[in-house]
Design a protein that fits this description.
42 strands
Length: 754
C-alpha cells in the first residue's frame, strides 16, 4: 500500500506540475463548429477528433445537444474529423487562427457500415485507425441487422473470437485469439460486470448480456493488464451502450423465434439542455430444447429473463459532467437431467445488478480529471427435485458475489506532443456459496490497489509511441508490475503499421481458490486450491491497415505466452476410501470437503505453460454505396509448451464471409448473408483424443420499412441446419449444443422528435 500510494502521489504531482504549461496560453485560439446531417439537423453526441499536423498529437471532444463543439488550440494547421455511428466520417483541414476554423460545418451522410469507428482501447476515445492496440468493433449497424438478442451471438461472428456453449446450451464462453474467457475482462461502458466469474467454469456468461441496448462492442486483443487490470491478460470486451440522438428517442421491438421464443424491448433516450439519458427494459423467454429426441435431458433449459438498464447524466458546463448508470437482469431457468439418483428437475434463479457513478472535471482546457465509483452484485440459487436424494445432500444451493470499485485518473496534454494518463484504483471482491454437501457459507474476500500510467508520445507527425505500466498490490499475492509498449507508423494517409508488446498478470479468482462443489447427480466434484500462484502472460503483435478508395485490408501477427495457466485438472476417480485418502494426501486437500466416491475429481492447479500464436486478416470492400462485402480469416496455433500438444476446444482455422446490401427502392430494403467456418477441433485432453468435425454456420437477415418509423425483419440462423455429426450415430451424443436451423421474425417501431 505504501509503495502504491507513493507512486500514485508522484504521478499526480507530475501531472499537476504540468498544468501551468497549458493553463492559460496567451496565444491560444479555438476550433469551433457544428455537426449536422443532410437535412441540417444537429447530430448530438458526434465525436470530433482534432490532429495537429505539425506534431501529430490528436485529442477529441463530443458535440453537445445542438451539435456544437469548441476546442482551445495553439496556432497551427489541424485535421478535424467528425464521426458518429451509422454515418460516414468527414475530414477538413483548417488553419488556426482563421475565420473558417471558428465556423466549421461538418455534414455527415448515412453509411450502412461506417468506415470510421471510435474505440476506447487506450481508455481514451480515438479513431480505430490510430489505435496501437488490436481492436475489432461490432458496429451498431451489425448489431441491428443481425437480428440477434444476445452478445454471445454477435461475438461468434468476429475474427479470432470463438464462442462456445456448454453442454447445457445456456452458458457461453468466449475465446480471444485462443485465450479462454477466464483471462478476458468484460466491461459495460467501462465498468466491470459481475457474474460469479471463476465459479461456473470460470466464465462470465455472455448469453446473459442483451444486445439491443448497445451502440457497439469493442474487442481489445492481447494482454491489456497495464491499462485495465488483473483479469485482462487475454483481452477486453467492452459493451458500449447507446446514447440519445435527439431530444426524445423512443424504440419498441417485439419478436418471436424458434422454441416458442418471445423477445420484447422498449427504450427511450432524452436530451434536454444539459440533461441526457437512456433507459431500456426487456423481457426474453424461450422454451427448453433437446438435441436427442428420446432423451429425458434438456440440451438447453427453458428460461425467462428481465433486463433493465438506465443511465442519466447532466453537463453543468463543458468542463463539469456527472453521470449515473444502473444495469440489472433477473433470470429463471428450468431444466431436466437424468443423474446419479434418477430423473431430476433443476430450477435455477440468478440475478445481477451493477451501479456506477462518474464525475468528469476539466481542470484546464487540456487536463481532465475523472472519478468513478462502482458496486456490483450477483446472486444465484438453485433447487433440485429428485425422487431419491440422500439425506446428507441438501437440495438447495446458492452463490453470492459482491464487487466494490473506486478509481480516479487524470489525463493531460503535456506540451505539444504528449498525452499523459495516470490513475489509482481500489477493488474488493467478496464471494460466498452454500455447497450442497459441505454447507460452507462463510465467504471469502480479496482486495487490490492499482496504480497505472500511460504516455502517448508523438515523436514525429507520422510516428506515435505509447508507453505504460501498472503496479498491482494484491491482498494475497503482494506487488506485481506489468508494462506495455506500442508504436504506430502512419506511412501514408492510407497505410498504417502498428506493433505492441505487453505483459499481463492475473491472480487466481475466488472460485479457483476456495470453491468446493460436489454435483449430486452428474458424477463429478470440483475443489478450489488455496496454493495456486498467479498466471502471467506476454503478448506480441504486429499488423497493418491499408485503405484504397473503397477497399480496406488489415492483417496482424500475434503471439500470447501464458505461464502457470490455471485449469480444473482431473486427478482421479476414487472408488475406495483408501484411494480417496491417497488423493487427499497427495494433493494436500482438506478432508472437510468430504469428497464422494465413484465420481470424477477435479482440482484447480497450475498445470501448464502454453502459447497461442497465429495471424488474422480481413478485407472489406464497398462495391457500391449500398453493397458491402467482407471476409476474414484467422490461423491459430495453440499448444502446451512441454508436450507440444494442440490445446483442446480451439480451432486451427476460423473464418467468416459477409455480404450487406441496402437499397432505397422497395421502401428501403436491407439484407445480408453471413457465414462462419470452423475447422476440426480437439474436444478433450491435451492428446486430443476426441476430435470434433469441421463445420459452417450460415445466417440470413432481411428488413423492410412498412411505414414511417416502423419496419419488419426476419432472420434465419444456421440456414443449412448444421449440427454435431455425433447426433447421427447409433448412440447419439454431442459436443456442441447448436440447435440447428432457427428463425426470428419481428417488428420495430421508432418515434421521437428533434
Amino acid at each position: 500500500m505504501k509503495k502504491v500510494s507513493c507512486i500514485c502521489g508522484v504521478l499526480l504531482l507530475l501531472a499537476l506540475q504540468a498544468l501551468p504549461m497549458w493553463s492559460a496560453p496567451t496565444e491560444s485560439q479555438v476550433i469551433a463548429g457544428r455537426v449536422v446531417d443532410e437535412t441540417g439537423g444537429a447530430l448530438a453526441g458526434a465525436n470530433v477528433f482534432i490532429r495537429d499536423l505539425k506534431t501529430g498529437l490528436e485529442f477529441s471532444t463530443v458535440a453537445n445537444g445542438e451539435g456544437a463543439f469548441e476546442v482551445a488550440v495553439r496556432p497551427g494547421k489541424y485535421r478535424v474529423t467528425a464521426t458518429r455511428a451509422e454515418f460516414a466520417h468527414q475530414t477538413q483541414i483548417v488553419e488556426v487562427p482563421s475565420p473558417e476554423a471558428q465556423n466549421l460545418l461538418a455534414t455527415l451522410t448515412p453509411a450502412p457500415l461506417a468506415q470510421q469507428v471510435v474505440v476506447s482501447g487506450s481508455r481514451e476515445e480515438e479513431l480505430i485507425e490510430n489505435s496501437v492496440a488490436k481492436v475489432d468493433v461490432v458496429s451498431s449497424t451489425m448489431i441491428k441487422d443481425s437480428g440477434y438478442e444476445r452478445v454471445s451471438d454477435l461475438l461468434s461472428e468476429e475474427p479470432g473470437v470463438v464462442v462456445r456453449s456448454g453442454s447445457s446450451g445456456n452458458r457461453s464462453e468466449t475465446q480471444i485469439q485462443g485465450i479462454d474467457s477466464r483471462q478476458s475482462l468484460v466491461l459495460i461502458d467501462g465498468y466491470p460486470i459481475v457474474g460469479a466469474r471463476g465459479i461456473k467454469r470460470g466464465i462470465l456468461n455472455m448469453d446473459r448480456q442483451s444486445a439491443g441496448r448497445l451502440e457497439r462492442i469493442e474487442v481489445v486483443k492481447g494482454a491489456s493488464s497495464a491499462l485495465y487490470g488483473s483479469e485482462a491478460i487475454g483481452g477486453v470486451i467492452n459493451l458500449i451502450t447507446r446514447e440519445a440522438k435527439r431530444k426524445f428517442d423512443g424504440n419498441v421491438t417485439t419478436s418471436a423465434s424458434s422454441f416458442s421464443g418471445v423477445d420484447l424491448r422498449g427504450d427511450v433516450g432524452i436530451r434536454h439542455q444539459g440533461w441526457h439519458g437512456f433507459f431500456d427494459v426487456e423481457r426474453h423467454k424461450r422454451n427448453p430444447y433437446r438435441l436427442i429426441p428420446d432423451s429425458f435431458d434438456t440440451t438447453a433449459a427453458g428460461f425467462h429473463r428481465y433486463d433493465y438498464f438506465g443511465k442519466m447524466g447532466y453537463d453543468f458546463s463543458e468542463r463539469l459532467k456527472v453521470g449515473l448508470m444502473a444495469n440489472a437482469f433477473d433470470n429463471d431457468e428450468l431444466g431436466r437431467f437424468f443423474g446419479e439418483f434418477g430423473p431430476q428437475t433443476t430450477a435455477t434463479k440468478d440475478s445481477a445488478q451493477n451501479y456506477g457513478l462518474n464525475l468528469d472535471l476539466g481542470l484546464t482546457p487540456v487536463t481532465q480529471w475523472t472519478f468513478r465509483g462502482y458496486y456490483g452484485k450477483y446472486d444465484e440459487s438453485s433447487r433440485i427435485a429428485v425422487l431419491a436424494m440422500p439425506g446428507h445432500i441438501d437440495t438447495n444451493a446458492n452463490l453470492n458475489q459482491r464487487l466494490y470499485r473506486l478509481e480516479t485518473n487524470i489525463s493531460h496534454v503535456w506540451g505539444s506532443r504528449q498525452l499523459v494518463q495516470g490513475g489509482l484504483e481500489w477493488n474488493q471482491d467478496n464471494y460466498r456459496g452454500y455447497n450442497r454437501v459441505v454447507g460452507d457459507n462463510a465467504g471469502q474476500q480479496i482486495s487490490m490497489v492499482d496504480t497505472w500510467f500511460n504516455d502517448r508520445i508523438e515523436i514525429h507527425p507520422r510516428v506515435s509511441l505509447t508507453l505504460g505500466a501498472r503496479w498491482n498490490d494484491h491482498s494475497l499475492y503482494g506487488d506485481n508490475f506489468v508494462p506495455r509498449a506500442g508504436a504506430l507508423v502512419r506511412v501514408t494517409d492510407n497505410l498504417r503499421l502498428r506493433g505492441s508488446w505487453g505483459r499481463g498478470f492475473r491472480a487466481p479468482d475466488l472460485g479457483q481458490l476456495y470453491f468446493r462443489f460436489l454435483n449430486p447427480t452428474n458424477f463429478y466434484q470440483v475443489i478450489g486450491n488455496p496454493s495456486l500462484v498467479p498466471e502471467t502472460s506476454t503478448t506480441n503483435q504486429v499488423g497493418f491497415d491499408y485503405r484504397l478508395d473503397r477497399i480496406r485490408f488489415s492483417g496482424a501477427y500475434f503471439r500470447n505466452d501464458i505461464k502457470n495457466l490455471i485449469q480444473a485438472d482431473l486427478i482421479g476417480r476414487p472408488s475406495t476410501p483408501q484411494a480417496l485418502r491417497g488423493l487427499l494426501n497427495a494433493f494436500n486437500i482438506d478432508s472437510a470437503f468430504n469428497p464422494g466416491l465413484h465420481r470424477l475429481f477435479y482440482l484447480y492447479r497450475n498445470v501448464d505453460n502454453v502459447y497461442t500464436t497465429g495471424v488474422e486478416s480481413k478485407v472489406e470492400m464497398n462495391l457500391t454505396r449500398g453493397l458491402i462485402v467482407s471476409s476474414s480469416y484467422t490461423y491459430l496455433d495453440a499448444r502446451d509448451k512441454e508436450t507440444k500438444a494442440f490445446l483442446s476446444q480451439r480451432h486451427r482455422h476460423h473464418g467468416n464471409f459477409r455480404v450487406w446490401w441496402s437499397t432505397s427502392r422497395w421502401g428501403g430494403l436491407r439484407t445480408n448473408f453471413r457465414g462462419t467456418y470452423f475447422s476440426k477441433w480437439p474436444i478433450a485432453g491435451r492428446s486430443g483424443s476426441f476430435i470434433g468435425d469441421a463445420y459452417q454456420v450460415w445466417d440470413w437477415y432481411i428488413a423492410k420499412p412498412v411505414a414511417v418509423g416502423s419496419e419488419f425483419y426476419f432472420a434465419l440462423d444456421n440456414l443449412f441446419d448444421s449440427t454435431d455429426s455425433n447426433l447421427q450415430t447409433a448412440d447419439p451424443s454431442f459436443f456442441r449444443a447448436d440447435p440447428g436451423r432457427t428463425f426470428r421474425v419481428g417488428m420495430r417501431w421508432n418515434f421521437g422528435r428533434d
